Amino acid sequence: QLTSNAQLEVRLQRNPLLVLVSTDKPLYKAGQHVNFRVLSLNHKLKPHGKQILRIWIETPSGVQVQQWREVEVNQLGLVQLQFTLDKEPLLGQWKIKVQHTSSKITETRFVVKEYIPVKFEVTVDASTEIFLDSENVSWRICARYSYGEVVQGDAHVEIKLQGSRSGDQPSINNAVKLNTYSGCVDLTVGAAELGLSDPLVQPSAVQVVATVTEQGSGISHTSSVLSPIHIQRFSLHFLCSRYYKPGLPYTGNVVMKTMEGRPRPIVGEKIQICVRVRHLGQLGMRLLQCYNYTTDFSSHVVFALPEIEDPFNLQLISIIASAIDHPTKLYPSSNEVMMLQPSVTHNVKPWFSPSQSFLDVWTRDTLACSSTAVIPIYYTVPSTASETPLFFYLVISK
């Protein structure tokens, strides 16, 4: 059998008093206000409602610079006080001391030092393009120091509508805290709050102003971004000649871009291309045919014009490209247009030749030396020509 004896001395205190002293931040600089609280609790952790005999503040050298006597506490056992530092205070650890009874003194410390602020930058980025039929709009606010570390602090974000049809609209204000790990925060606002779905508001842009306040120092920096609001999902652009050689093949490109002019790499977007023509003696345009294409990996559509009847009497060819999966959308509450169908028109005029003779050489990419290539050459000759024309050509290297 194993027997063990131990003794422990326990001190008993009648009606012990718990005093907690805290400041609003651990670090201060010259001229700032030191805000602090004193909380007094009894042995049952309930507010201790008696007066505090004395509260005083000591410099790092132990000199008492300010004191309060017979301080009354509120019903919660709490008292809040403020002390203002001089413009040239002693640097180091300062003390706040609280004497509740003749024998009990509690203290806490705070640091005063010359603070050299580290520069940080605030960025505001819209996560996506904004359209009048968007359900939600998001922005990302980030703050980073010049050396790459994230900033700890709070952000005040003001959202202002620009170009509203009904005049100035009230700003939307949000107070958010930056993420501890990323130094960023994502802010999402609904379409109804921005007035996107209201034809009477219909803003043309949204300005977001973000002010980030660094935790501890109180230093703030501001950044803003102006995000346009689009009434069209994307834009289409023709990359082809404005002239057509009658009787010869005509090909072209349609490229899809964002409304801000950047590439929009989406594969499989359906693009319809319709061809209208007008011959000599006709007043209006006649629909020749429509073709459906899909965009490739580079957001391009390559098309070719069909064979056109009586090409030598053509006056004008009009090529219309439109996104058939994005038709024009109206506001639910009115007949006003909310979103336009992406569409573009390209007019092509025929070249003129008295002999009705045309020549076209299809160029190729850069060719390597000693390589072989087939270069198509297309031409037309009058129907009355009796012989095949003789061609002379010259190949020049660069």
Automatic annotation (TrEMBL):
- Residue ranges annotated for the Macroglobulin domain, each copy included: 20-112, 114-193
Q: Which Pfam families match?
A: MG2 (PF01835), MG3 (PF17791)
One BP annotation, GO: immune system process
Gene Ontology molecular function terms on file: endopeptidase inhibitor activity
- Lineage: superkingdom: Eukaryota
Keyword field: Glycoprotein, Immunity, Signal
Q: Which GO terms describe its cellular component?
A: extracellular space
Signal peptide positions are none
InterPro entries referenced in this protein's UniProt entry, alphabetically: A2M/Complement_sys, MG2, MG3
Describe its partners and assembly state: Heterodimer of a TEP1-N chain and an TEP1-C chain non-covalently linked. Forms a complex composed of TEP1-N and TEP1-C heterodimer, LRIM1 and APL1C; the interaction stabilizes TEP1-N and TEP1-C heterodimer, prevents its binding to tissues while circulating in the hemolymph and protects the thioester bond from hydrolysis. Mature TEP1 and to a lesser extent full-length TEP1 interact with SPCLIP1; the interaction is induced by microbial infection.
Q: What does this protein do?
A: Binds covalently through a thioester bond to the pathogen surface resulting in pathogen clearance.
- Protein's UniProt name: TEP1-F
